[in-house]
Design a protein that fits this description.
By secondary structure, the protein is α+β, with helices and mostly antiparallel strands. The chain has a single domain, classed as Ribbon-helix-helix fold. It is built from three helices and two strands, in the order E-E-H-H-H. It has a two-stranded antiparallel sheet with strand order 1-2. Strand 1 and strand 2 form a beta hairpin. Helix 1 packs across helix 2 and helix 1 crosses helix 3. The radius of gyration is 12 Å and the shape is globular.
Length: 74
């Protein structure tokens, strides 16, 4: 897997930089497209519900949970 790549997004009215591996950026793009919304909107929703978890970890876990659901796994 390639090293993390940092990208900047506007969420909740402010710019933030997020570091994720390309595979996770690709997964988030696929999830957002399937939901008919921009990646920034998906990230904002995940951000608002992440609690104490750091944002990069919350995004990785969201992608994992999404694909586990598609595979029929809890």
């Amino acid at each position: 897997m390639k090293p993390e790549r940092k990208r900047s997004l506007s969420i909740a009215g402010h710019r933030t930089s997020i570091s994720l591996e390309d595979a996770f950026w690709d997964a988030l793009k696929e999830i957002a497209a399937a939901e008919g919304r921009p990646v920034a909107a998906l990230v904002a929703d995940i951000d608002s519900g992440r609690g104490e978890l750091n944002l990069s970890s919350a995004l990785r876990l969201h992608a994992l949970a999404h694909y586990r659901r598609l595979a029929g796994r809890p």
